[in-house]
Write a structure and sequence with these properties.
47% helix; nine-stranded mixed sheet; alpha+beta; 365 residues; two-stranded antiparallel ribbon; Sortase, Chain: A; 7 helices
Length: 365
C-alpha cells in the first residue's frame, strides 16, 4: 500500500510534465495553423486586390513569367494562362482592328453619303439656278411680248386716229374733199372718199398700184396692222364706171370703226330709214341708193362673176332682190338693170368666216 502510494506520488509529476509538453505542442500547431491561415489570407488579398472593380486588367498586367525552380505542374498552369491571355489579347486586338475597319468603312460610307448629298444639293442648286434663268427669260419674253403688244396697240390707236372721219360739211351733196392735201400729207394712194350717213363710216378710199391686199393689213400711214384702210382692187377702174365696184373694209368690232357699222343695216328699221351713201372724187360727188343689205358667201365677187355679161348680171341681182329676212333686206321700188352702176360695200360677219355682209347701192345722180 505504501509502495503504491509512493509510486503514485512519484508518477504524478511525470504526468504533469507530459501534459505540459502535449499542451505546448498543440499550442504550437494551432499557432502555426493560424499563421498559415493569416499568410494565406494576406496572399489571397494581395492576389485578389482590386478584383471587385475589374479583374481583366489584373490578368492583362500579369507577366506569367516562369521561374526555373517552379514545379512542373505550376509551370504548366502558368503557361496555359499565358497562352489564354495571348489568345484573348489577339482576339481583342483582332476585334478592335475589325471594329476600327468597320468604323473606317462606316466613316467612308458616311463621307461618300455626305459627298453624294453635297452633289445632290449642288445639282439641286444648279437646277434651281437654271429654272430661275428660264423664269427670268420667260419674264423678259413676256415683257417683250407685252411691249410689242403695247406698241401694236399704240400703232393701231394712231392709225385709228388718222382714219377718223373728217367732217367738212353737214350737207353730203355739197361737201368738198381736199384731195390734194390728203395725197400730199396722208397717202398718195387716196383717190376717193366714202360717207354713209347714219354711221361713222367716213373714210378715204385707197388703191395700191400692185398689191390688191396691201391695205387689208396696212394703215393710212403705211404701218402694218389693223385697222387697215377702205380700198378697192385693180380689177376695178378708178372712175367708178364699172357695172359693179367693190369696196372692202374690216369689221373692227373692238373699236367700232372702218366698216363695222355696216351691220346697223341688219336692223330693218335702220335699213328703211337710211337710203343713201356717197362717193367723193376730185371731180364729182356720186350718190348711191341702197337697195339691198345681203348676207353672201365669202367668194370673190369680181373673180367669180363677169358682171359685164348681161345674163350674169341679171341672174346674180335677181337672187339678191329676192332675198328678204334675217339680216338681209330689200328696198322696193328701186330699178336695177344691166346698165346700172353698182357699188358694193363688203365686210366680215362675226363668227361666220365663210360669209360676208354686203350693202348694194345703185348710182342715182
Amino acid at each position: 500500500m505504501d509502495h503504491q502510494i509512493k509510486n503514485n506520488q512519484t508518477d504524478e509529476p511525470a504526468r504533469k510534465d507530459e501534459r505540459k509538453r502535449h499542451g505546448n505542442v498543440g499550442f504550437v500547431i494551432i499557432s502555426v495553423a493560424l499563421l498559415l491561415v493569416i499568410v494565406g489570407m494576406i496572399i489571397f488579398l494581395i492576389l485578389h486586390a482590386g478584383g471587385g472593380k475589374d479583374q481583366t486588367p489584373l490578368v492583362g498586367d500579369a507577366s506569367f513569367e516562369v521561374a526555373e525552380d517552379t514545379p512542373k505542374s505550376m509551370a504548366d498552369q502558368i503557361e496555359a494562362k499565358k497562352e489564354t491571355q495571348e489568345a484573348t489579347e489577339e482576339s481583342g486586338a483582332s476585334g478592335s482592328t475589325e471594329a476600327t475597319e468597320e468604323t473606317t468603312e462606316a466613316s467612308g460610307e458616311s463621307t461618300e453619303a455626305t459627298e453624294e448629298s453635297k452633289t445632290e444639293e449642288s445639282k439641286a442648286e444648279e437646277t434651281k439656278a437654271e429654272e430661275s434663268k428660264v423664269e427670268e427669260s420667260k419674264t423678259e419674253e413676256s415683257k417683250t411680248e407685252e411691249s410689242k403688244a403695247e406698241e401694236s396697240k399704240a400703232e393701231q390707236s394712231k392709225a385709228e386716229e388718222q382714219a377718223k372721219p373728217v367732217k367738212t360739211s353737214t350737207d353730203p351733196e355739197t361737201r368738198v374733199i381736199d384731195f390734194a392735201t390728203l395725197q400730199s400729207t396722208k397717202n398718195a394712194h387716196i383717190y376717193a372718199w366714202i360717207s354713209v350717213p347714219g354711221t361713222n363710216i367716213d373714210y378715204p378710199v385707197l388703191r395700191h398700184p400692185t398689191d390688191d391686199g396691201y391695205y387689208l393689213y396696212h394703215n393710212l400711214n403705211g404701218s402694218q396692222g389693223y385697222p387697215g384702210c377702205i380700198y378697192t382692187e385693180n380689177c376695178n377702174s378708178m372712175d367708178w364706171t364699172d357695172p359693179v365696184t367693190v369696196l372692202y373694209g374690216h369689221d373692227m368690232r373692238s373699236t367700232g370703226t372702218m366698216f363695222h357699222q355696216l351691220h346697223k343695216f341688219e336692223t330693218k328699221s335702220f335699213f328703211d330709214k337710211h337710203e343713201y351713201f356717197y362717193i367723193y372724187t376730185p371731180e364729182k360727188t356720186l350718190k348711191y341708193q341702197i337697195f339691198s343689205a345681203y348676207v353672201h358667201s365669202n367668194e370673190h365677187l369680181l373673180g367669180n362673176h363677169n358682171f359685164s355679161n348681161k345674163e350674169v348680171f341679171d341672174t346674180f341681182f335677181s337672187t339678191v332682190l329676192a332675198t328678204e329676212g334675217g339680216s338681209s333686206h330689200v328696198r322696193s321700188g328701186v330699178a336695177i338693170s344691166s346698165d346700172s352702176k353698182i357699188v358694193t360695200l363688203s365686210t366680215c360677219i362675226k363668227n361666220k368666216p365663210e360669209n360676208r355682209y354686203l350693202i348694194f347701192g345703185v348710182l342715182v345722180n
